[in-house]
Design a protein that fits this description.
Strand 52 and strand 53 (871-876) form a beta hairpin. The protein is built from 6 helices and 53 strands.
């Protein structure tokens, strides 16, 4: 009934307190034969009691049955009553044997009845020095301990021990000779308030079989001392180590559109230390249901991953109503990571997120999930060939667009590359030829390098509704693209660098396009022909670059220094007109009447890599980049230093002139881009494109540009501001099992900037309670403006987005994620969440207050993951506020 998986099961092990009684039995047997008791051999009065303040007594026997020395300690005194044959230890009594240790304010041992007794003492109306037993890292506490060594039976009053995330308490505990423990008025809790826990599971009787299980009679949940109706007739708690299979308790509730429901229930299978599985499901009374199979696997130093398959059938309203809808969806998730040490020369990875495009829309309440526009997957294998420059990569990828429901699958994709090599150096190493000198020509020859890459790809794109049909195969695209780049690096006049590059490319297709005029219906018919066709191209690029530094001094004694660096580049790029008839890559087809006119088309127009460009390209390119910074002299305790301030981190402008078309608008568009940060907080980015030519009355470009009047027309631009503000780190918060603050060091290495980040991390790692430093508040704001011109039409889009979180009080947290579309005067998708820390309990509230996915969730649950099914949850999904339509 109460079995559960490893993350949820209650570990009640290590009842090692009772081992103490066995050790004390040996001590009593040993004491009757002891040679030394710290009692004088010459004492005539055997009834005289000896006291030794702050004494330390070692019990030594010539025939000791113990393997190690036993030490007794007492802060006040150790007394021997020879008449009653008892040993008394007063004040911080301490008994040590090997890795066992018993502490109490008072301990006595009876040598005749074989009974040991340990208890605390009264001091100012309080009990101090209660028995405490240590063995290794285990600690046990009790009010009183009494044990009979001969019968091996014992009695303990008010035992308390911590096991995992919980605490076990028993009012009266008895142990029989078979090492089975019986508890009366026992209780289990994850609350650290031992004296008065906020909640506990109470059972009148408990039976504990060490290293096996705990069996309880009737048990009930008690909250703030008030019994609740939540009860069970009996329960079983496994104590064995390792994974345990068991039920996953579902949450329950009611949906206005789908009826009553049970959510996220199922079964956990702890199959091995490297592999486990969860089968979870949802069910509604109106017929909706969902099922998910989640598999986690891990092999240390080799690989780890998670595999999930989900299917849902969402049925809104009753079947007879006009608003009824039935939406089946499925999802496949797979994350696989290979340890880099497992196979240094090869790697396999997988990131699969595939399924129907509406799965997240109907099954998620998170805006970050249901608002995503694409679902991307990639499976990759790479192989490096040792002691060679060659590398091989195999890929399979898919991309699903959730807006237009189109799917693109690339399967397979092969890439084979060779690292850059230097022929001159290879010849020199092969022939053993000595260096030819250091002249610029020889240096240039030695800098010549060659590389190689080839890519083979097969891809298809189709709507989701027709993707699995046979007709989709007719639209498959494939090809092989190979390139050989030759490059060099030469310096002129010490300051100018020239890096010429000549790239040869070959694109191979197994099908090509042929267009012909169909006089029957006066239209152009496009035929797809099969056969190998190759497009050979080359491209030449010669860039010249240098750096120019400028420094300006301001103020007395150079108090301010401004430094600016310019990065000018002049380049020449060339390729011939591959649209010429001699190449055969472009052809002409007759147009509609008047007959005799022809239009060009590329036989590779449907190829996956496209085809060679038409028109000669002989462009002289220009670009200039710069940055600007300032150094200010300041006085410090260590003397005068200069503080650096960045005024402009990056700014660039570029354009080009096509020498092949000097009479037909040869100038390229002018592009601008820049970024900087003000006050170390405000990030600014801007970019734009300027068209140097004017428009005619129809909105088309004409070959007219008067540079003396203007630089040109701004046809698109983007400006954005972003900043993140946060409070000072508040130290470690919400760190132990109950969420209490602690002074423990932050060993996790995590530096989360806001409570909202902590919420997200905790959801992903529910078992994690290590100290984490978070800021008490955080606010991130982003402003973006887009400007676009199409002919005479101009559009401007402005959006503000913000994400914030705050610790309102000591126990209240709040976060918001929203935005505002200034152009359309409406809020973007908004999500609010709040959290209340209630020591060992926690209240969570999240809502999407408006929009298509309007919903909310309210949950009150125990913090500890071992009792995470102990919760009360109320949810109203988006389907309760509006009917989903596909």
């Amino acid at each position: 009934m109460w079995q559960s998986r490893q993350k949820y099961h209650i570990e009640l092990r290590h009842f090692k307190l009772f081992t103490l009684f066995f050790i004390l039995a040996l001590l009593i047997t040993h004491s009757s034969k002891a040679a030394v008791y710290a009692v004088s051999d010459t004492a005539k009065d055997t009834n005289k009691q000896k006291k030794a303040d702050s004494s330390k007594v070692k019990v030594v026997s010539k025939k000791t049955p113990l393997n190690s020395k036993v030490d007794y300690h007492a802060r006040d005194s150790i007394r021997l009553d020879a008449k009653k044959r008892k040993v008394y230890l007063y004040g911080d009594a301490d008994v040590k044997y090997e890795n066992l240790e018993l502490k109490a304010a008072y301990i006595d041992i009876s040598l005749d009845s074989n009974i040991a007794f340990a208890t605390g003492i009264q001091d100012s109306g309080k009990t101090i020095g209660k028995p405490e037993f240590h063995q290794g890292s285990d600690v046990f506490h009790a009010e009183q301990i009494r044990y009979n060594f001969k019968s091996k039976k014992g009695r303990i009053n008010q035992i308390t021990t911590k096991e995992g995330e919980g605490f076990i308490q028993g009012k009266i505990v008895k142990k029989d000779s078979s090492n089975v423990f019986y508890m009366k008025n026992g209780r289990y809790t994850t609350c650290s308030e031992e004296a008065d826990p906020h909640f506990f599971i109470a059972a009148y009787r408990l039976k504990v079989i060490p290293n096996k299980q705990v069996v309880t009679g009737p048990a009930m949940l008690v909250i703030e001392g008030v019994p609740t109706p939540l009860a069970i007739p009996f329960g079983f708690f496994p104590l064995t180590n390792g994974r345990h299979s068991g039920l996953i308790i579902p949450s329950y509730g009611e949906s206005q559109s789908q009826g009553f429901y049970l959510l996220d229930g199922g079964y956990y299978l702890g199959l091995s230390d490297h592999f486990d599985m969860q089968v979870r499901g949802d069910i509604y009374t109106n017929g909706s249901y969902g099922i998910r199979d989640i598999v986690d696997y891990s092999n240390r130093y080799h690989y780890s991953g998670e595999f999930k398959v989900g299917y849902s059938d969402t049925r809104l309203q009753i079947p007879e109503s006009p608003a009824f809808s039935n939406t089946p969806n499925f999802l496949v998730l797979w994350q696989h990571t290979q340890d880099s040490k497992a196979r240094p020369n090869s790697n396999f990875s997988a990131s699969v997120n595939a399924g129907t495009t509406n799965y997240y829309t109907t099954n998620s309440y998170s805006p970050d999930v249901f608002l995503q526009n694409t679902m991307q997957s990639n499976i990759a294998f790479s192989q490096n060939f040792p002691q060679t420059p060659f590398h091989l990569t195999l890929n399979a990828a898919s991309q699903e667009n959730t807006i237009n429901t189109s799917i693109q699958v690339t399967l397979p994709e092969l890439t084979f590359t060779a690292d850059r090599v230097y022929p001159a150096k290879l010849i020199e190493n092969w022939m053993g030829t000595p260096p030819l000198g250091n002249g610029w020509l020889i240096t240039a020859a030695n800098s010549v390098s060659v590389a190689f890459s080839t890519n083979a790809m097969n891809s298809v794109t189709a709507p989701e509704s027709t993707f699995l049909k046979e007709s989709t195969l007719k639209h498959m695209q494939n090809g092989i693209n190979s390139s050989i780049p030759l490059s060099a690096n030469v310096q002129f006049f010490k300051y100018i660098t020239c890096s010429p590059n000549l790239t040869f490319s070959a694109v191979n297709y197994f099908q090509y396009t042929n267009e012909r005029w169909n006089p029957i219906n006066d239209s152009i018919k496009i035929d797809t022909l099969h056969g190998l066709r190759t497009a050979l191209t080359y491209n030449l690029s010669i860039p010249l670059t240098t750096n120019i530094y400028a420094t300006y001094s301001l103020g007395k004694k150079k108090a301010v220094i401004i430094r600016q660096v310019f990065y000018p580049t002049v380049s020449y790029n060339y390729h011939p007109d591959f649209g010429a008839a001699s190449y055969g890559y472009w052809k002409k087809v007759q147009e509609m009447p008047p007959y005799g006119q022809y239009q060009p088309y590329s036989i590779f127009q449907n190829g996956i890599y496209g085809g060679p460009a038409t028109g000669k390209y002989s462009v002289l390119g220009f670009s200039l980049a710069t940055n600007l910074e300032m150094k200010v002299r300041v006085q410090t305790d260590s003397g005068t230093v200069y503080k650096k301030i960045k005024l402009l981190e990056r700014f660039s402008i570029s354009s080009g002139y096509n020498l092949a078309t000097p009479d037909s608008m040869p100038w390229s568009d002018i592009t601008l881009a820049g970024s900087t940060t003000l006050f170390k907080k405000l990030a600014i980015n801007f970019s734009g494109t300027i068209d140097p030519y004017e428009l005619d009355y129809q909105g088309n470009n004409i070959n007219a540009w008067d540079f003396s009047k203007s630089l040109g027309r701004l046809i698109n631009g983007e400006l954005s501001f972003s900043t993140t503000l946060s409070g000072a780190k508040g130290g470690t918060k919400n760190k132990d099992q109950q969420g209490n603050a602690t002074a423990a060091q932050n060993n996790s290495g995590l530096q989360l900037s806001s409570p909202n980040d902590y919420f997200t991390y905790e959801q992903m790692h529910p078992m994690y309670w290590a100290p984490i430093e978070i800021a008490p508040w955080s606010l991130t704001m982003f402003y973006n403006m887009l400007y676009d011109v199409q002919g005479f039409a101009k559009t401007t889009t402005q959006t503000v987005m913000f994400t914030g979180s705050m610790q309102l009080t000591k126990f209240w947290y709040f976060s918001v994620n929203s935005g505002y579309d200034i152009s359309n005067s409406q809020f973007t998708s908004t999500a609010l969440s709040a959290r209340r820390d209630m020591h060992c309990w926690q209240l969570d509230f999240s809502t999407v207050p408006f929009g298509f996915h309007q919903s909310f969730t309210l949950s009150v649950h125990v913090k500890a993951s071992v009792l995470q099914d102990l919760k009360l949850q109320r949810t109203r999904g988006w389907t309760d506020t509006q009917v989903y339509s596909q």
